[in-house]
Amino acid sequence: MYKINDYLVYGKDVCKVCEIEEKKFNNEDYYLLRPIKDPTLKIEIPITNKNNKIRDLISKEELENLLNEIPKIETIKTNEKFLESEYKQLLSTGSHKDLIKIIKTTYLRNQKRLENNKKKTEKDTTYFELAEQYLYNEFSIVLGYDYDQTKDYIRKRVSDLVESN
Question: Does the predicted TM-score (pTM) go above 0.85?
């Protein structure tokens, strides 16, 4: 059971438990959550949460292990025609590795376009930003950094890992 001021992931959004309301509906207790990306929103969910949309944040140790794996995580290999469908499917899982796969794929595709004097594609940029947002919102809470510091930390770690290989 979570306590007030705990953080959790509901769906794909990192939320803070702001209140615990006792026996509000159907004789059940409810969490009142506020997503960190939009604290004006309120989400009420039963504490029993039978739909399994709640999970704990990644631990710092799991996060560090995941960062070490980033160079080994494959990019998406599919036909251009099916790429957006693949992005959507991976984004829907909320899996850290799937989000990293999107980030790596979209980043490398856009870099290649820029090297060929072409513009970044809107599709790749949109999915890159969405995947980053879901991933870095969670990582920032775990690391105790703000969003931009988290981005800088991850980029430096990945850069160091790539250079050492």
Answer: yes
